[in-house]
């Protein structure tokens, strides 16, 4: 009998071929509604593989009941929704989708940076709302991007791809990372390592790309926002949990920083009456960092390959706990 694989969201049929050859595949059929927890628990009990979204919680409770489970493939580079330690203990391989989304996510990070700096969404709404009455010298004037200082917190592959884009704008790039990366400094030129505090104090744009871990939870708190320049723009494209949103709300209200661009939130979807959304100088996006059609198809194919490889006893191309 073929092993059973459950996919927690509807994916294009064309991405599933590799898996369908070796497994019985079932998919949650709603495109814009997540699978309810109870259904996921039931499916997981008989599944050898799960293909999950970043919004599905794969915790110890689920893993302990999933006795047949060999692999969980997340359709994301981040995997903070999965208890990797518990998975390792249960002998479950956890996989993600790195690399294929690097440039696409860096594009979005830069788009959000530019939108925040030049007030793009605010200006676009202004026109559509019929508020544009006359041209005027400082109407919706933002701040420059070129020749400014960009600070990248979390210098992984996406961080390096953002630094590459910044070079075209002749920005100086500071970065903070757990590990200093001399090879990246050499490759990119105008790229300088800083402590977290130095980076906050010196940057005009701060882009957060660090994964959510117990160490980074709430990293951007009151103290951090107070250290930033009052002209700084804060961009987050990693995970909402890295930011203390109450502190950010205060920072925007009291003018500790100039503005923010967020693709991610503590609670997703963010409720429309959330205090953060009241700030005109906050650009909010619905977690679309890697959302180009090309990249989402590649991510789906990679997740499928990850599962197919594990179920066939092969090394998955992107396992995060492979050597445990
Ligand atoms: C998206 O946030 C991802 O982790 O891929
Ligand atoms: C994170 O994993 C990255 O690719 O930056």
Set out the fold topology.
Blueprint: E1 4-7, H1 17-20, E2 24-27, H2 37-46, E3 49-52, H3 60-65, E4 71-74, H4 84-89, E5 93-95, H5 102-118, H6 120-128, E6 149-153, H7 157-168, E7 172-176, H8 182-188, E8 191-193, H9 196-202, E9 205-208, H10 222-227, E10 233-236, H11 245-253, E11 259-262, E12 282-284, H12 293-311
Parallel strand pairs: 1-2, 1-3, 3-4, 4-5, 6-7, 6-9, 7-8, 9-10, 10-11, 11-12
Bound molecules: glyoxylic acid (GLV) (2 copies).
One glyoxylic acid is lined by residues 54, 76-78, 101, 289-290.
CATH-defined topology of the largest domain: Rossmann fold
Structural class: alpha/beta
Count of domain modules? 2
Can you tell me the CATH superfamily of the largest domain? NAD(P)-binding Rossmann-like Domain
Percent in strands: 5-15%
The largest sheet has its strands arranged as: 8-7-6-9-10-11-12
């Amino acid at each position: 009998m073929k092993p059973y694989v459950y996919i927690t969201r509807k994916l294009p049929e064309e991405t599933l071929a590799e898996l369908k050859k070796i497994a019985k595949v079932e998919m949650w059929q709603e495109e814009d509604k997540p699978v309810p927890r109870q259904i996921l628990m039931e499916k997981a009990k008989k599944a050898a593989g799960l293909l999950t979204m970043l919004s599905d919680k794969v915790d110890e409770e689920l893993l302990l009941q999933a006795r047949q489970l060999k692999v969980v493939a997340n359709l994301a580079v981040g995997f903070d929704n999965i208890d990797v330690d518990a998975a390792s203990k249960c002998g479950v391989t956890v996989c993600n989708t790195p690399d294929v989304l690097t440039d696409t996510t860096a594009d979005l990070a830069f788009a959000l940076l530019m939108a925040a700096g030049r007030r793009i969404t605010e200006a676009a709404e202004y026109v559509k709302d019929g508020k544009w009455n006359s041209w005027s010298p400082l109407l919706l004037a933002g701040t420059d991007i070129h020749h400014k200082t960009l600070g990248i917190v979390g210098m992984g592959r996406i961080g390096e791809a953002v630094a590459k884009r910044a070079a075209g704008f002749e920005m100086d790039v500071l970065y903070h990372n757990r590990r200093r990366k001399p090879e990246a400094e050499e490759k990119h030129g105008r790229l300088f390592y800083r402590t977290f505090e130095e980076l906050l104090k010196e940057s005009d744009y701060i882009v957060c790309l660090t994964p959510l871990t117990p160490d980074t939870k709430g990293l951007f708190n009151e103290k951090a926002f107070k250290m930033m320049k009052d002209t700084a723009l804060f961009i987050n494209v990693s995970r909402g949990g890295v930011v203390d949103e109450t502190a950010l709300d205060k920072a925007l209200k009291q003018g500790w920083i100039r503005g923010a661009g967020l693709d991610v939130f503590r609670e997703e979807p963010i409720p429309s009456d959330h205090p953060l959304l009241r700030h005109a100088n906050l650009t909010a996006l619905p977690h679309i960092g890697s959302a180009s059609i090309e990249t989402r198809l590649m991510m789906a194919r990679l997740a499928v390959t990850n599962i197919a490889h594990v179920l066939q006893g092969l090394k998955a191309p992107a396992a995060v706990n492979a050597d445990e």
